[in-house]
Amino acid sequence: MKRDIKSLSYEELNNETDALGLPKFKTKQIFEWLHKFGVGSFDEMTNISKDLRAKLADLFFISSCEIEQKYVSKLDGTVKYLFRLYDGEYVESVIMKYKYGYTICVSSQVGCKMGCTFCASTLAGFKRNLEAGEIESQLHSAQKDLNIRISNIVLMGIGEPLDNYENVIKFFYNVNNENGLNISMRSITVSTCGIVPRIYQFMEENLPVTLTISLHAPNDAIRSRTMPVNNKWGVDELLAACREYIKKTNRRVSFEYTLINNVNDTYECAKELSVKLKGMLCHVNLIPVNNVAERGNVKSSEENMHKFIHVLKKYGINATIRRTLGSDINASCGQLRRNRNEVR
Ligand code: SAH
């Protein structure tokens, strides 16, 4: 079977060109075509000979994300894509415009195994991991379609990035490569539901990527109700891993906390969370839950959200309420893929 050439790291590509007896600068040229320009075929590599293009096409294919559907928010210009992969599977990405540039929210897997009860990504089932090249293709397709340059990446689309560890790390190195998109690792955020051994592994990589933890509850009783992963690694174990991460990397950790009415938005929850996070180098992002039809969760009231953040701030904890973008296009991930699978 042919392999995806876009999913090779620079070193792996170099080994392949070595094996073909090519000079070093060919690696750079091919890498540029694939990663800087995001070409979809070997024929577009105009400074590569026809013979070599044919040879490469015999050995490899180039993964891509074809636009199946596109939605543009009338409220704030947020764009959401449903992308079709080479095997007919679908993933989603969202492009958001901020003052400092464009941010893409990418998917890391086709579906998700984690089973969080408020999330749409699990509903259509887990199919497979995305290869590094497929994660990156989401950027190429969006950049070409919108004629923009993306400056920030968040891995908060479909899937659990740390459950697709090797491919995600390779994706970081490839988008960061100066012969590719050249996006700083500091402009990348990876979000995890809390796979503790992977957090320890990730701190050893020592990458300046921002780590975000989907916490959503201050204790095991509440967290285990909505996040099955918590049965394996509880809140205290997760926070211990975060403290170690901060110690080791000197980097701030972010926590996502989705506020669900009367589930995790009470005064007691705010207080318990504050006590547990006090003194930690962290930031808490409060997010009003986005209701997914089947999930039946209700957003906290404005009043409860403000009360909640007030408690955190009293304890000296950095916290913000996240602005909602693209609310008219179901921009929270997982929803398009699920609808698509229903009509198939
Ligand atoms: N698997 C990773 C990344 C994907 S989810 C993780 O769990 O972190 C990205 C973020 O969106 C997570 O914090 C997730 O908990 C949150 N999320 C999922 N469904 C949501 C919903 N319906 N409303 C608000 N946030 C949601």
Walk me through this protein's architecture.
By secondary structure, this protein is of the alpha/beta class. 36% of the residues lie in helices and 20% in strands. The protein contains 11 helices and 14 strands. The protein has helices at residues 10-19, 24-36, 50-59, 132-146, 165-176, 196-205, 220-226, 235-249, 267-277, 302-314, 335-343, and strands at residues 3-4, 60-61, 66-72, 79-84, 90-98, 101-105, 109-110, 128-129, 150-155, 188-192, 210-214, 253-259, 282-288, 318-321. The strands form 3 sheets. It has a 10-stranded mixed β-sheet, sandwiched between helices. It has a two-stranded parallel sheet with strand order 1-2. α1 packs across α2 and α4 (132-146) crosses α5. The longest helix is centred in the middle third of the chain and has 15 residues, at 132-146. It starts with a strand and ends with a helix. The model has no long low-confidence stretch (mean pLDDT 93). It binds S-adenosyl-L-homocysteine.
List the main descriptive attributes of the protein structure presented here:
344 residues, alpha/beta, 10-stranded mixed β-sheet, two-stranded parallel ribbon, 11 helices
Short synopsis of the structure:
36% of the residues lie in helices and 20% in strands.
Number of helices: 11
Give the total of beta strands.
14
Can you list the strand order of the major beta sheet?
3-4-5-6-9-10-11-12-13-14
How would the global form be characterised? globular
